[in-house]
Amino acid sequence: MKKIFGVNLYFLILVLLQVFGGYILTPFASFLHGRIWLSLLVTQIVFLIFPLLIYLIVTRQPVLATLRLKKLKLKYLPSVIGVSFLVYPIAIFLGLITNLFFKNNVTEVLQKMNSLPLWAFVLIIALTPAICEEMTMRGIILSGYNKMGTAGAAIITGFLFAVLHMNPPQFLYTFALGIILVYLVRLTDSIFASMICHFMFNGINASISWFAARHSVKGNDITSMDPMLRNFAIGLYFILAVMAVVGIVFVIRHIKNISTENETIHLDKVDGTVAIESDNVVYKFIAYLPILISVVFYIVYALNRAN
Fold first, then answer.
1. Number of structural domains, the chain?
2. Rounded to an integer, what is the distance from CA 22 to the centroid of its chain?
3. Range of the domain at 83
């Protein structure tokens, strides 16, 4: 529980940086003003990479093992790429659901950056988060749950991944994506699996948004669509999402089958010590208290932005 508490506390610090980080960047406000692409880049580096380096220095954790910086075996690559495409219809469906309640502000931000060349657009929107967010979430945060079964670790860290974005319109699909990425990392024992998947997912979104903006194609707000058309779109993507989930389950099982025992972490094995500590309600409450506080900040921050 001590290691879980440590990474959960680290996550709370990241959330606080997301909430109050604007004050840290105030001296550079005039320089960043109007440069959304630069603001996104600086945010990823200052609020994710810098804390990551400090964490590794303070805790003296082994860098390669903690971040799972291990070579991705070529036999896993086709499966990782396959999952990258299968995730997309799931994300679209979950995005449609959240857009019924929250305005899609992500598209607006992307459209304001359409003056960038495509390569720079993809670099900022796809590559940078794939590196910074993966080393943070599937690196440091997931390392704290190494003694927990993959299902539990995937759900918890997937939830934290959604909270870290501090943006309700993105919550559902980032939650789902976070769960899937944990399975890829645990099964391949390489963070490059989740980096590739994350990069391809964001890259597809970035490319579509860039071309749409360049050709003055505006996406329709689902709440303003004709009810019949809206229901048809939701129903269609629900079917596609279900098919994609089935496909991902099949691919995950395939990855597990082509892995040898010493290459992967047992998915359902939980360390005995953890099981004993988990029975202590006080230990468990303290270990997960930072998550509870993070959720409170998330809710308050989201409500404040909505107003």
1. 1
2. 21
3. 2-306
